[in-house]
């Protein structure tokens, strides 16, 4: 619940959000405010907020804006893990809107239930056409509903690789048989972006820490890879059967995040133009961003000025492109970006954590020792992956003081890194 992305409307109070939800939809000047209010109340786990969200689900008004608010209210109740909401949201399992069904199934999974009747209702959705089967399968496995195993099994052959991956994972989890995990690892490099992302979550669900090296080189966002790797490392550490030295190089690789180290999902059929390469850096599918980064380094290493112009004009509000271009400036050894690296590392907020990591790495790769004191400041961050990046860059610059500065760090992984 501490994600900076949940509180998207900092000026909206709990009181005002509840008022918006309680106002009849036809009386709202901006009807979409009902949806925003339902989303915002996830930040207020009070009885009043929960009651307001449940009341939304009981409103039969057929207006599209009300239906959208109901879908978001279900999600918020799921995030808040409100057990009393399950019976209220249960009728939505039979809704004609598959996205409403998806949110309901997901929310029940988040809240958790052992009610066999509810679990069977969810399992029966596998026989219903047009559903979002991946979420259904994940939830049944998460809630350990064994009677669904035979119905899940056919989905392992689904043409939709994201669904097939979830089904293989569920089958492994419900049967206790991990012999098919290699198929899940294979999906880490699938051309379907949802399969690649899903495979990381599926490996997390299985707590399969042996996949950490495979996740490190998957062509998905660095933040998603590191989230999966850190989760698996933490789980293994809790069980006291984990040797960090065996995966340290994988964490280093994922933090450095050089495109040359990744297993690409795509390729260019011919040498791309500079315009195409820069355009692909803004793709929401990071598989193409990494492909473009690799092409930039291979074909256009002298075009830093052109890249800087694009950055100034287009990347300021694009978190993904901002990250990739900051990182590219470092790999290109583009010295005019030095001040940009410093400003990014020291002054940008939580929403730009990825770019701050990229800036730390780029400062190291630029090989300017003036960056050392600034990288030491980065070690004061509470974000483990930013500290890790600063440690790597300090080491790259020949400075070992980071180990001393982090000697009493409370994070076990940082402790392992400096030992």
Automatic annotation (TrEMBL):
SMART domains: EZ_HEAT. InterPro entries: ARM-like (IPR011989), ARM-type_fold (IPR016024), PBS_lyase_HEAT (IPR004155). GO terms for molecular function: oxidoreductase activity. This is Bilin biosynthesis protein CpeY. Keywords: Antenna complex, Phycobilisome. One of its GO terms (cellular component) is phycobilisome. It comes from the Bacteria.
């Amino acid at each position: 619940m501490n994600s900076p992305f949940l509180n998207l409307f900092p000026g909206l109070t709990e009181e005002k959000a509840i008022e918006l939800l309680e106002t009849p939809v036809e009386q709202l000047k901006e009807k979409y405010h009902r949806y925003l209010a339902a989303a915002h109340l996830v930040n207020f786990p009070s009885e009043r907020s929960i009651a307001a969200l449940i009341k939304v689900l009981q409103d039969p008004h057929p207006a599209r804006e009300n239906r959208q608010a109901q879908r978001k209210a279900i999600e918020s109740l799921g995030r808040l893990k409100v057990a009393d909401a399950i019976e209220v949201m249960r009728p939505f399992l039979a809704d004609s809107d598959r996205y409403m069904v998806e949110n309901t199934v997901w929310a029940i999974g988040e809240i958790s239930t052992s009610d066999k009747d509810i679990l069977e209702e969810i399992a029966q959705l596998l026989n219903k056409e047009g559903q979002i089967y991946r979420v259904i399968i994940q939830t049944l496995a998460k809630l350990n509903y064994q009677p669904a195993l035979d119905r899940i099994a056919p989905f392992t052959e689904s043409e939709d690789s994201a669904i097939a991956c979830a089904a293989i994972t569920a089958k492994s989890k419900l049967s206790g048989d991990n012999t098919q995990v290699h198929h899940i690892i294979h999906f880490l490099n699938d051309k379907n972006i949802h399969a690649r992302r899903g495979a990381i979550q599926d490996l997390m669900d299985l707590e399969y820490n042996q996949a950490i090296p495979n996740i490190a080189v998957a062509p998905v966002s660095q933040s998603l890879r590191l989230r999966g790797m850190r989760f698996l490392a933490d789980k293994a550490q809790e069980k006291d059967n984990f040797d960090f030295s065996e995966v340290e190089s994988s964490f280093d690789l994922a933090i450095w995040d050089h495109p040359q180290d990744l297993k690409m999902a795509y390729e260019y059929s011919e040498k791309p133009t500079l315009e195409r390469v820069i355009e692909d850096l803004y793709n929401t599918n990071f598989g193409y961003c990494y492909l473009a980064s690799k092409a930039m380094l291979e074909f256009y290493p002298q075009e830093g000025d052109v890249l800087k112009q694009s950055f100034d004009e287009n990347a300021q509000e694009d978190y993904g492109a901002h990250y990739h271009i900051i990182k590219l400036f470092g790999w290109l050894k583009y010295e005019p970006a030095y001040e940009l690296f410093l400003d990014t590392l020291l002054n940008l907020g939580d929403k730009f954590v990825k770019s701050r990591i990229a800036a730390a790495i780029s400062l190291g790769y630029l090989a300017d020792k003036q960056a050392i004191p600034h990288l030491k400041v980065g070690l004061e961050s509470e974000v483990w992956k930013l500290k890790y990046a600063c440690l790597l860059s300090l080491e790259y610059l020949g400075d070992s003081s980071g180990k001393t500065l982090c000697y009493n760090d409370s994070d076990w992984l940082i402790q392992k890194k400096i030992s």
